[in-house]
Write a structure and sequence with these properties.
The termini are far apart. This protein is of the alpha/beta class. It has one domain: Rossmann fold (3-Layer(aba) Sandwich). Strands 2-1-3-6-7 form a five-stranded parallel sheet, sandwiched between helices. The chain has a two-stranded antiparallel ribbon with strand order 4-5. Helices cover 34% and strands 20% of the residues. The protein contains seven helices and seven strands; from the N terminus they run βαβααβαβββααβα.
């Protein structure tokens, strides 16, 4: 059985950036780098990962994690990511918009965080998150080819609501519109400056 993960200890202040795009070197990747650059300007350690680089399955609803307090129903790449999440007080989560929503990779990632919840025996079951009450903070970003919030659909909400439920305070949100070509955002000075500012904002919040 997988060993339980201690969820309430930070060895040092750090921020984990999680990119949810299946396309390497694209706009989401550039935004992850830029936001984390802003974080590092406050001397906070960062790490970037991309979900496409990990082989992992969506949650299968086996409910074993309710007893084991870690995912034991699947043995895959998420078990490389869980410690990174636990050890990082800050989180940057980015997804391009796919069909008005987050990518399948980000959805599977969020669903696999279900193992951090603790449930009681009432119906409907009350719940708490073992990541709650630890000062965890996050920023989220979404990239959409179209130009309106309507066309971005539920992308930001689909990240914000689960992260808040897990115990993260959402410090900032960065919606980016009108971009599709690979890496095009790197030529958009205002957007890149905003991304850096989002990182600085997250870092400043973690330091207070």
């Amino acid at each position: 059985m997988k060993e339980k993960i201690t969820t309430n200890h930070f060895e040092k202040l750090r921020v984990l950036g999680v990119g949810g795009s299946p396309r390497a070197g694209g706009n989401s990747d550039a935004l992850v780098r830029q936001i984390l650059q802003g974080v590092r300007e406050k001397d906070i350690a960062t790490e970037a990962i991309h979900l496409r680089d990990y082989s992992f399955e969506p949650c299968i609803g086996c409910e074993k994690c309710r007893k084991d307090e870690i995912c034991t129903g699947l043995n895959d790449g998420m078990h490389l990511i869980y410690p990174k999440i636990v050890e990082s007080q800050g989180l940057v989560l980015i997804s391009p918009t796919h069909n008005y929503n987050i990518t399948a990779w980000v959805k599977a990632f969020i669903d696999r965080l279900y193992c951090f919840y603790t449930y009681d025996n009432n119906r409907p079951r009350g719940w708490t998150s073992r990541l709650n009450g630890q000062g965890r903070k996050a920023v989220i970003a979404a990239v959409c080819e179209q130009e309106t919030k309507k066309d971005m659909g539920m992308t930001l909400e689909a990240m914000r609501l689960p992260l808040e439920a897990l115990g993260y305070e959402i410090i900032d949100e960065l919606p980016v519109f009108g971009l599709f070509d690979k890496g095009a955002v790197k030529k958009e000075e205002k957007i890149m400056a905003k991304a850096r500012a989002v990182g600085l904002n997250l870092a400043s919040s973690l330091l207070t």
